[in-house]
Amino acid sequence: MSNKPTKRIKKADLGITLLLILGILVVANFFSYKLFFRLDLTENKIFSISDATKNTMRQLDDVVNIKAYFSATLPSQVLSLKQEVKDVLDEYQTYSNGKVKVEFIDPGDDADLAQELAIKGIPQLTFEVYEKDKMQLVNGYMGVAISYGDNIEVIPAVKRDTSDLEYQITTAIKKVTVDEMATIGYLSSQGTHSLTESLRAAEQSLKELYVVKELTLSEEEPSIAADIDTLLIVGAKEKFSDNQLRAINAFVVRGGALLILQDGVSIGQGLQASKNITGLEILLSQYGISLNQDLVADKRSGVASFTQGFLTFSSEYPFWPKITNAGFNPDASAVSGLENVILPWASSVKVDTAKISEDSFKYLAFTTNDGWQISDNFNISPNGSTVVQGEQKRYNLALAVNGSIANAYPEENAPENINGKIVVVGDSDFITDGFLRNNPDNLTLFQNLVDTLSFDEALISIRSKGVTSRPIKELTDGSRATIRYLNIFGLTLLVIAFGMLRYFMRRKSRFVDEI
Q1: How far apart are CA 82 and CA 102, in angstroms?
Q2: Cβ–Cβ contacts within 10 Å for residue 467, how many?
Q3: For residue 402, which phi and psi values (nearest 5 degrees)?
Q4: Which residue range(s) make up the domain with 231?
């Protein structure tokens, strides 16, 4: 009996099925034309705006105008950026309920517009383009201006890596819509790190969002200006007088926020280490915070480079504890989204729960359970640093206090307890320019800590979306071997299994047709 009619029926069914699928897609596309929907399957939703941005858009009181200046003559390698920016701005429009107006403008050869953009701070960029085996220079714009009334903020040039574009746009919207930005006071006396020399990246990040003022504490009548909202003390090495400590305490008493990045041990030339006693540890102890004069090491550590004679080598260095996602407090927004921070030559910190209640503080970062500490006879050379000394356990390296603390210097008629807002990290080197080159999450940690004390914690969730490092979890030898062999033979076995499955299915199909 011929099976040709059966085959014709099967082909007809296949054709009808394909037409139905095509029809369904056309109808779905028609009805979804005016609906806004995007599915982002990435873990941190890096291709979608965050809930923090959505809430910011819903709370706008008036219209925010966003003008994106993109030239039509941009080279092919950056043309996709315009579409990426458009996709992001479409979401801002959607969630703002009409309060965000977006316009894309091609400046072309308009000289007046070019002058206007130059005044705003959006420069004309020059690109190298290769055409017909020749290199040519092409000028164009890729900037964004965000305005609210008379206030304006600009993104001079959109970077090819748009992972932080949402943060830039939302920060700019917040800056143009708030009445007054917080003022950060940076203590430049007492031997702290210089903003303009070793903390240039940190200074730039602060100035993007805050008013930054350097200040010194005199010996005679030290005081902190009334307009300072948050005081930063980073890497002090000289002793504070009693009057200077009283001035800092008076600042905390009046409601000022305090961020202290302080080394319990100073590291000099040739890795010579000595206890760093400045008096800050005395002030903090009055509040119930211990900043210890020790060095903490950990089996999970960063890689450091050393020079011995004419030889330069790199190795894991336990005195550079590496804090991965498991080493951050998931309940603290300042650190919950971080993946990889290195705190070189860090000291441990601790809270006295007899002075500070448990609901008033959080430990932010800590070592693994394989950490250890040394408190004297500091041998931190790469040759002797791997020797475990003392008890191995988890050590806390950063903490935040937000609640009732003791008044360190209660004056007459002053309260004995005050509401303190203090963050302490037992290390200052992590934010210096030298360490930031290889550890960009260090800067994110610093920015998050300042935001926690000074502005809007919502920005933290946006900034921390982009993962800069995703370390592999610790694996047993057996697990590593299994993964290795699956990687070598797994794909081959999968192809063979698929081929055999297809072979038996085709044989079964022929058998049914013959029947």
Answers
A1: 13
A2: 17
A3: -145, 90
A4: 182-294+346-369+394-463
The owner of tokens 């990426």 is 84
Instruction: Give kind and range of the element (H or E) at residue 139.
Output: strand 134-140
H-run or E-run covering 118? helix 111-120
**pLDDT tens per residue across span 405-444:** 999 988 767 788 899 999 999 999 999 998 998 888 899 9
Pairing state between β 134-140 and 273-275: unpaired
Residues facing 134 on adjacent strands: 131
Residue 336 CA to residue 325 CA, distance in Å, equals 8
- DSSP string of 264-309, one letter each residue: SEEE-GGG-EEE---SHHHHHHHHTEEE-S-EEE-SSEEEEEEEET
Domain co-membership, 262 together with 140: no
What is the total count of domains within the chain?
Answer: 4
Residue 126 CB-density burial (10 A; 0-12 exposed, 13-18 middle, 19+ buried): exposed
Distance, CA of 402 to CA of 422 (rounded, Å): 7
> What beta strand segments (E) does 288-384 contain?
289-291, 295-297, 301-308, 311-324, 340-342, 349-351, 361-366, 372-374
504/499 Cα distance (integer angstroms): 9
Measured torsion, CA atoms of residues 344, 244, 353, 334, in degrees rounded to the nearest 10: -50
Give the span between the Cα atoms of 504 and 506, in whole angstroms: 5
Report how far residue 156's alpha carbon sits from residue 8's, in angstroms, rounded to the nearest whole number.
64
What is the SS3 assignment for 459-470? Answer: HHHHHCCCCCCC
d(CA 424, CA 399): 6
Query: For residues 49 and 465, is the Cβ–Cβ distance under 8 A?
Result: no
**Domain shared by 192 and 267, yes or no:** yes
Strands (E) in 391-432, as ranges, are 396-406, 417-425
DSSP strand pairing (211-215 vs 151-155): unpaired
Least confident of 32-41, 217-226, 361-370: 32-41
Q: Is residue 2 part of a domain?
A: yes
What is the rounded CA–CA span in Å between residue 350 and residue 395?
A: 9
321 in a domain, yes or no? no
- Quick: pLDDT tens for 110-157: 999 999 999 999 999 888 777 666 677 888 899 999 999 889 999 999
pTM for the predicted model, two decimal places = 0.74
- Dist. CA 512–CA 192, nearest whole Å: 84
- Residue 326: inside a domain, yes or no? no
